[in-house]
Amino acid sequence: MYEGDSFFTLTLWGRMGLLALSVLFALVALAVTRLMTYYRPLVIRIPIWAVLFITFVWASPQGYYTYYRLIFDGLPAQSVLGALPRPEEMIALLTFRHSATLSAHSLGVLGWAMLAIAIWPRRRKCRDAAN
């Protein structure tokens, strides 16, 4: 399925760096989702998740481009941010109907993981531990 994916055109070290960067980005996105949704009611957590996921999909290409500038000579310093993703693109990512690439499928998995963290039930504090 991923035979022609651009990930496999990188050197071993390039792939390892890209994988490390992706894990870092995912962990940060998950942590921010947790921080932004933990003490909020469920009705607010869903829109917060949507904004965070859309923001990640929109902004993360700049981080990856910065990494590519480190491993490829001659890439110019530029912004690669475009317009915010359209709703149908976000739905395609989350339903794995977007392009059949590691990047698109990873974004879909991350979106669902962020949603799970956003809606995960919160523990209620016990008011009286003695009882």
TrEMBL record:
Keyword field:
Membrane, Transmembrane, Transmembrane helix
Spans through the membrane: 12-30, 42-60, 102-120
User: Which superkingdom heads the taxonomic lineage of this protein's source?
Assistant: Bacteria
Q: Does the keyword Transmembrane helix apply?
A: yes
Which protein is depicted?
DUF1361 domain-containing protein
| Species of provenance | Tateyamaria armeniaca
